[in-house]
## 1
Amino acid sequence: MLPIRRLVAIGAVLAIAASGIALAETMADHQPMGSSQTQQMMRQHHPQGTMPGTMPMAAHAGMHAAATVPTMPGQDAFGAIQEIVHMLEADPKTDWSKVDLEGLRQHLIDMNAVTLKADAVAKPVDGGLEIAVTGTGRTLAAIQRLIPAHAQTVNGVNGWSATAAPLPNGELLTVTTTDPKEIQHIRGLGFIGLLASGSHHQPHHLAMAKGEFDHEHPGHT
């Protein structure tokens, strides 16, 4: 027969071991499921391929496919013409016998030359700004076409007085006002800001593409 003290010690060891087993079983019962188990249960509750906080798998695939199609035309003048082509094709009243996309292309070449290649020297004058816009070759021709037409277009806008006078190598654009608040507006805009003022360019481009533009009396840029 084992001594009483040894029996007590063995009993204590067995009790501790039993407690450890019970604790491990309890922790296993409350342990979070693995990712595969979680996904399996989520799929059972969401058989259509969706999960809370996510978009449908088909929609996600569609977005991925759409993202692989370029949206930029690659060249700004090309993009401007492409937009107008879409508008013309969507309009059943378009008279294709009058459409003049080549005229629009030439106009955009002029705009590019005046915007990027012309020299523009601005000088403050009483009531506004005087700008000598000069260039050579195709740029000079573009200046002579666009600046006088633009002066006609912005004349009277915001109470401005706009005129263009020929120079040996360009045009002298003068924009003035009698409104003291508009003087700083004109000077702040400067050459390119004055050229971009107003929203007449886009309607004018569409009219030009439709063949409704009077090349002899442009009146717009």
Note: Helices lie at 4-30, 35-45, 57-67, 76-90, 101-116, 137-154, 180-196, 201-209.
## 2
Amino acid sequence: MTQSKAQANAESTYFPKEGLAPEAVFAELDAASANDVDWRDGRLGLYVHFGGDDVLAVAKEAYLRFFSENALGPSAFPSLKKFETEVVAWTGDLLGGHDVAGNITSGGTESIFLAMKSMRDRARARGEGGDWPEVVAPFSAHAGFDKAAHLMNMRVIRTPLRDDLRADVDAMREAVTPDTIGMVGSAPGFPHGVVDPIEDIAAVARAHDLWLHVDCCVGGYILPHARALGYRVPAFDFSVPGVCSISADLHKYGFAAKGASTVVYRDAELHSFQPYVFEDWPRGRYAVPTFAGSRPGGAVAAAWAVMRYLGRAGYERIVGDIMGACTRLAEGIHAEPELRVLGDPEGPIMTYGADELDIFAVAEALEEQGWFVTRGAEPPCIHLGMLTMMHVPVIDRYLTDLRGAVQAVRDGRVRKGAARVTYGG
């Protein structure tokens, strides 16, 4: 007799009494993924960052070789210490830094959290910031800054954007108070894909002796290579005086395994505010550099292996293909009279909206053609997430379907789009 869905759901809440053969376990895994988006066909614009089958193979093999090792114990696993140290140094070099310090983290949120902790603890050491230290950030800065502030008794003061969707530096300057300890800029910001005027923000930060963190979780491993290829990329990294720390995600355009990011500081003195140390414990002194204790050795090894495999030349080859796809996509969107790309983005994130058409209806029409479409809230737009190598072959197909979606909305076949605007769970 076939087991009812209710019975199956009920049984899934109890710890299994008996184990299964590996083949049966894998069959259940496959069945569970049946409704997942098939990201390999290029119809998913975020969550997965694909650098090519060869890059993926290197990351997987490296991860498996260090699957059980733990980066919490560098004395036990000096190999992982070597990998982390070199990845941080290579990242600093890529981002215009010398003698940088930092760590590999679990992702961009942890990198942001650690930068916020470091600026808070430096302010405490200097007797600054009051009971609720403030960090000034543009409206487009990642929500992770507010998440970190919520957990650490801080406040994020968000300021308006300019018409080009970049940070309004005058508004940021006016938001500085005696309790302000830091400022934030993005390169690029996730909502619109544009790079904030980091040099101008840095000038304000220097004038007030504030910590400036640049969120390069998206751009850190693609913008430097795009610049080397001749693409327009404004100054945003440690080459700008006043930039204290940078977050950059290895598992995005570093094409490493999840979860891996970096938080990098201009020097060791700034990095010294990051670790957590606890002395009053029977086990002895507890000291960790990151939020996490145990850290997967596989993620550290995979990041090192991919960077060592690709080198600058390999990254530039991939980035050239991705940026070329971005250019073709922007040209195709501009060719539709009702559509416009928002903000003139420098990197791999692109959003587009419409003045006359319901852009969410266009999104609905694209979904009917099998695309996984994400939306932006302010201004209303279609958010193309982050283009990678899986999108390079499908740009023409996307533009063809986009033209069909626009025509369907023009004709009234799709009348109203649902504004389902969310990110994450």
Note: The longest helix spans residues 297-334.
## 3
Amino acid sequence: MTMTVAMDARRAAPGPRGHLLVGQLPELRRDPFTFLVGLAREHGDVVRFRVGPATVHLVTNPGGVQHVLQDNNRNYGKQTRGFQKLRLVLGQGLLTSEGDFWRRQRRIAQPGFHKDKIRRFADQMTRATERMLERWTAREPAAGGAPIDVAHEMMLLTLNIVGETLLSLDTTEESERVGAAVTLTLEHIQRRMFAMFPVVDDLPLPSNLRFRRAVRYMDQLVFKLIDDRRASGVDPGDLLSMLMQARHDESGEGMSARQLRDEVMTIFAAGHETTANALAWTFYLLSLHPAVARRLRGELLEVLAGRAPRYDDLGRLPYTAAVIQEALRLYPPAWVISRSAIGDDVVCGYHVPARSIVVLSPYITHRREASWPNPDGFDPERFLGERTSAAHRFDYFPFGGGPRQCIGNGFALMEAELVLATVAQRFELHLVPGHVTVEEPLVTLRPRGGIPMRLKPVAAAPPAGG
């Protein structure tokens, strides 16, 4: 490896010249989504640019992605500005921690996400979705066809699901406030990630004060949850109980209240945000592609015949799963992944110096013409049987990859498929004519301004709870 680095040390990746002092910071601040997509289109699979004094490499080649996330993952840490900001909310949870501490926490949490554990949550996911549909049904006559914001509805639903299944917490009364707090913190973090003057983070500006209030509110909610669970002595068998009972292999010590808080906050905030976005984009795509929606409903009718889906049904709903997978290809909620290079490295033949930032983008890699026929088209059949289009393992990585692959990917896919199967049997969702839906690249890829859609009951829809 040392010889390779030396030989390639002068081969810098192509990229824009940028401004003398700040590099590409203005462009990145103005529209990070368009900027990064344009860089890859103009300069190729590895692009070098500057953000202030920092050197950044955008790597979208699947082999390069594999090198960073898997083959040489120990050379790439999370000491980036983005993760520094996320730690203000998530602390040292699984998403943001590193090294031996992360490995210890991952070993503790991993059993809770085993498929045999999460399958018991399926009925709760379906019941929560049916409660939402009951509310939709009750509003229809009075609303007179008024649109709903599907993105907002999915946020509330997934927040309730993660609260009930993983934390045994009923968030119905708090869901609006929790959702607003999560949105505020994500928007604040996104703005501060690309700030021209980071020192303003410590000033008592109105935006900073709102951010701190939102974090304080979520802290109070989570610490109360932990305190109440400890005081009750009740073990409902959820992830929180498992984390509270876990002990270090050698010392026998359990997690501190702060460690529990960080893990719960990660599950609570990140766990619902990504799935909500995935579902919102799925319903958006189905509205634009009625033939796909008809085939989806046909599969659901054939397999479920109007009843609520169960965990054991998922293996018999391949097209439903393919719709979710294709939506994740086109609109991966975690649209960028950042790492910091600990030592010098070579990626796809280009020198990546120590302390530089490496940015990976599932969104861009998922739409490479070299990997996917008609890359911008919505075609769930890509993920059916032998037709799976991906030629390389890292052509498709909506949940990351390597040792740091998202621990909750199985939970999220099960949830998304059950919600889609439950909703699609009862309602068609149609995008309001004339509404232009565009991507909002926050920490996750949200639809800017939501997705207003009108509901149309499916003919011969099954009764709630059927």
Note: The first strand starts at residue 46 and ends at 51.
